[in-house]
Amino acid sequence: MSESDQWHNTSWLGVARRRLESPPALLLLLPLLVGIFLSGSVSLGWGVVALVGVALVALLVMLPRGRVTHVIVLLLLVAVGYLAAQSAESRATEEALGDNALHRSAKERIERFAKDDDSYAVVEAMVVGRRERITSELRSDYALTGFAHILAVSGLHLGIVMTLFGWLFYPLGIVHRGHRVRSVGVVVLVWLYVAMTGGSPSTMRAAVMLSVLMLARGTGMSHLPTNSILITIALLLLYDATLVDNLSFRLSVAAVLGIVLWALPLVDAVYRRRLPCRRLLSTLVVGGVASIWVLPLISYTFGNLPLMSILVTPFIMLLVYAILALGMLLLFLPDVVAEVVYGVVERIAMLHNAVVSRAADTPGFVLYATLNGYEVVAIYIGFVLFSFVVKVWSEKKYLTLLDDEPEYRLQFVDTQ
Asked: What is each CA distance from 9 to 111, 170, 400, in whole angstroms?
């Protein structure tokens, strides 16, 4: 290997260039978003947009492949996003799975053992997806402290459920192709949880994104999880462009992207370094990262920025894991055992509510600051750029270490 090739592979510029050689799916998503936003501010007829699309396709066919054709493809995607937004205005898509048998069974089972109203309301919200029993005072405490998203089943809850079921099927990893069986099993159980919560549209959309992620990792495509998620988001927006204005969709997307870009690499690092209490640490990482990624949206929507909630989040996430795990276990236990288990769940929920209420009453816990749309976008761009820089740095460090072992280095380069 020549010295120039070695520089290209191990320098910051070389590693970053290799990371950018394959166009990311973000180039598919951004033009669609531009088209969707244009539909709300620019009024064009279907005929005009269709004619523009035909002209762009004609240019795409006639011109040789190059940067001009790349621009044409991006413009075509803008047109597709515009048409998708126009068609979505007259289509009702907010249809849930409804009051299915699994949902009714879970609701009746929890209601049978309920004693404390506030605890029951929180358990019912997380496990069954029903929030009608949450009092206005309790709802206000959760909103003030930045934990309101915990009461609405979203990508955060599905990520936790995915982690719990991943532990359940962990022994399959030692079997030949067992990781594939584990991925399929986790996806099936995640969708059972979606049905148990009543299958709201926001929950199903988050389940679609996480299913793509889990199946991609299980089939050996773990190096492309971000592209898989972004393509899934693009398809969902093509189906219903009005999702851009849906808070639940935004929270789910933020939580899932946080899990993909930050949590999964951190969890992999925890297991590679064989740190003590690996499963506990991975639990805290997934929940904590998802909570951090939804903070800008919480400030933009509710007008407060609970920065101190980051300190309380690890403990809150442990309680959420316990409530979800034991709450789902209730469905499969005989009544005598289930009553005892629910007593434990109820006490955990009481502690959960007490921590949130105490935080809401603590001076200085909440910073009353409303981020505008540009600031929120800038923060998320910063999150993504930080992820990219860390990825480049880690790969550069790995390639630099391989310099001491040329034969391993050649094997690594040949696989790229």
From this structure: 60, 35, 9
Instruction: At 168, list the tokens.
Output: 């359940």
8 A C-beta contact, residue 44 and residue 52: no
Question: Across 159-257, where does the E strand assignment appear?
Answer: none
The DSSP output letter for 24 is P
**Largest CA-CA distance found in the chain, in angstroms, rounded:** 74
Q: Tell me which residue of 352, 318, 349 sits closest to 113, measured CA to CA.
A: 349
Closest CA to 237 of 252, 223, 217: 252
186-198: burial string, b at 16+ Cβ within 10 Å, e else: bbebbbebbbbbb
Q: Assess contact for 248 and 152: CB atoms under 8 A.
A: yes
Matching residue, tokens 């001491």: 404
- The count of C-alpha atoms lying within 13 angstroms of the C-alpha of 198, restricted to the half-sphere facing its C-beta, is 21
Is the distance from CB of 197 to CB of 129 less than 8 angstroms? yes
pLDDT tens, N- to C-terminus, the chain (416 residues): 444 444 445 555 554 555 544 455 566 667 767 777 777 677 776 556 666 766 766 666 566 766 776 677 777 767 777 766 665 554 444 444 556 778 888 888 888 888 888 999 999 999 888 888 899 999 988 888 878 878 888 777 888 888 888 888 877 767 776 777 787 788 888 888 888 888 777 677 778 777 777 766 665 554 456 776 777 777 777 767 777 777 878 887 888 888 888 888 888 888 888 777 777 787 778 778 888 888 898 888 888 777 777 778 888 888 998 999 898 888 888 888 888 999 999 999 999 999 999 988 888 777 777 888 899 999 999 998 898 888 777 766 655 555 555 444 444 344 44
Report the Cα 407 to chain-centroid distance in Å. Answer: 39
Q: Which of these, 351, 248, 257, lies nearest to 297 by C-alpha position?
A: 248
Indicate whether this model's pTM tops 0.70: no
Alpha carbon distance, N-terminus to C-terminus of the chain: 15
Contact 121, 137 (CB under 8 A): no
